[in-house]
Amino acid sequence: MVINDNAAYALKGRILKGKWEVTERIESKPGSTGGFFSVCYKVSDGENIAFLKAINFVAFFQIFKGRSIMDILAEQTNAFNFEKNLLLRCKSKNLSKVSTILDEGEEFVEGFTINNVPYLIFEMADGDLRSRITFNNEVELAWKLRSLHNVSIGLKQLHSVKIGHQDLKPSNVLLYETGITSKIGDLGRSLCDDIEAPHEELGNFTGDFSYAPPEFLYGFIEPDWNKRIRATDLYLFGSLVSFYFTGINMTALIGKNIDIQFRWDKWGGSFDGVKDYLVDAFYKSIAEVKASISNKNLGDEIATLLSISCYPYPSKRGHPRSISQLGSQYDFERIITKLDVLTRKAELDLWR
Questions:
Q1: In the CATH scheme, what is the code of domain 127-350?
Q2: Residue ranges per domain, the chain?
Q3: Does the record's keyword annotation contain Kinase (predicted)?
């Protein structure tokens, strides 16, 4: 199978489902939604421009040379259907801060070895977080806080329908309405309480390991599925907060601030044995984020937010008042409320 034998690259000009005209192929940027294993297009129904993500089977064959073609097709079809089912659930529940699927289908393209191209169509974003954010914390504080508020709502919405995102990172925060609204995108590595994920194996982390919570890096896996999923999303949210203000995620900061002999790629002992060193590195990392924010009151608030979201032990994450309430330790409600208050204050300050 040669690279030109790829139906996913042959959709331009086609009319899908009698409605969507494929007008232009979009070159994927490194780390963007879609990525190497998808081919992306702009499509139009005559009124709206949307984003199409087509599965690129050939890319998998190139990466996994020697593996059974039938096995790869089955695996990737299962992965596609899993993501599609999660997206359709989100759409049916009107999750306002999760990127919306508009349509889905499969196009038959003659003349190719594999001539069926499954695709998903989404509302068109302006770009992802990286296209907008700056790390001069004297400007756009209100925008950053509002964006984080949107993301926290999105995570709470996902949890309300039994979905854990598990791969929250800057490229998966999508911007709409010229950047006014932020939504969570890419559920491809998510986990769900009642829909089996083809990529879930023995409780391991399913997202990008450069953003992974420390417990996974040291080989500790929380046995309770619900606690593990929610504690992971809470950490990833806090790590995103760190990125908004410093350009560095919390995992990278901890890795920088911990004595190298205790870092996950060097340490050979247990998770319990390294906890004190992790906590020390964690508080050094918080201090680093806080130092990047000149507004002392806001710096204190962000430090508190990080301390409850990213604590190295998953059992101690969460709002102090929530920890004592069964079932709500990792709930985002108090975080949402706090970010709303901080956003409104920052917006008022713009008018002074």
A1: 1.10.510.10
A2: 7-123, 127-350
A3: yes
Contacts of 2 (CB under 8 A, 6+ apart): none
Calculated CA dihedral for residues 79, 83, 86, 90, nearest 10 degrees? 180
| Nearest to 45, CA basis, from 19, 17, 13 | 19
> What is the dihedral sign for C-alpha 177, 179, 182, 186?
positive
- CATH of region 7-123, choose from 3.40.50.620, 3.30.200.20, 3.40.50.2300, 3.30.160.20: 3.30.200.20
pTM summary value: 0.93
